[in-house]
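Appendix C: a fully annotated inverse folding record. The material below is reproduced so that readers can follow the format used throughout the book. The structure is listed first as tokens, followed by the designed sequence.
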């Protein structure tokens, strides 16, 4: 997990927050809750309609609260784009995470924290304050095993184990760059004129052959090998 860059200092009094949430009622409720705190303020909100990078560039928030379940945008890809474009801004994902691998993908995308949808108000606000101070915040029950797994994967990549003795089919090699471009299984199926379940099967086989666990890792693998 990359080192968090801290823009906010407690002496600055107010944490500037950009809220990305596509449900209007939730967005307004979260904004009202945050703005009721003396040490933080929502400087902007968005429904996640592709204007996130523009808003960060314009508003310079210390923290971006990003709904991982956006209907019009892939939350993981949005997180990766934000942390790549604005490494000094800390991103906190909000949502219902299905597995450790989902959290791993969020961590590898560069997120500084995670707030589950069933979090208490105290946990919600506490996570924002901690991340603004440079503290990584993930569910405690998963944090230990997760970071161990991240380190193991990093060591494997350094030794080059990821690319040794991998035999990919022609179709799998066609799909990898499309995944790296952020296409969904349905979009890939339309591009290649095959069934969606066929693409899903190829993606599963690709993950197994490359010893990876997420589409984001496939994208990273592709970009690393293109550069080498």
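Designed amino acids, in order:
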């Amino acid at each position: 997990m990359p080192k968090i860059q801290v823009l906010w200092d407690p002496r600055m009094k107010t944490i500037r927050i950009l809220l990305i949430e596509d449900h209007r009622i939730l967005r307004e409720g979260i904004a009202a809750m945050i703005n009721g705190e003396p040490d933080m303020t929502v400087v902007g909100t968005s429904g996640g309609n592709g204007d996130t990078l523009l808003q960060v560039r314009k508003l310079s928030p210390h923290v971006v609260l990003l709904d991982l379940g956006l209907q019009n945008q892939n939350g993981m890809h949005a997180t990766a784009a934000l942390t790549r474009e604005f490494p000094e801004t800390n991103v906190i994902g909000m949502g219902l995470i299905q597995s450790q691998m989902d959290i791993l993908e969020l961590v590898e995308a560069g997120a500084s924290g995670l707030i589950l949808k069933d979090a208490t108000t105290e946990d919600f606000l506490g996570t924002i304050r901690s991340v603004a101070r440079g503290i990584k915040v993930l569910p405690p029950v998963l944090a230990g095993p997760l970071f161990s797994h991240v380190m193991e994967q990093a060591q494997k990549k350094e030794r080059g184990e990821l690319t040794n003795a991998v035999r990919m089919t022609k179709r799998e090699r066609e799909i990898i760059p499309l995944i790296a471009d952020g296409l969904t299984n349905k979009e890939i199926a339309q591009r290649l004129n095959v069934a969606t379940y066929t693409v899903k099967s190829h993606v599963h086989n690709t993950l197994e052959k490359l010893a990876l666990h997420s589409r984001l890792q496939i994208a990273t693998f592709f970009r690393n090998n293109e550069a080498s």
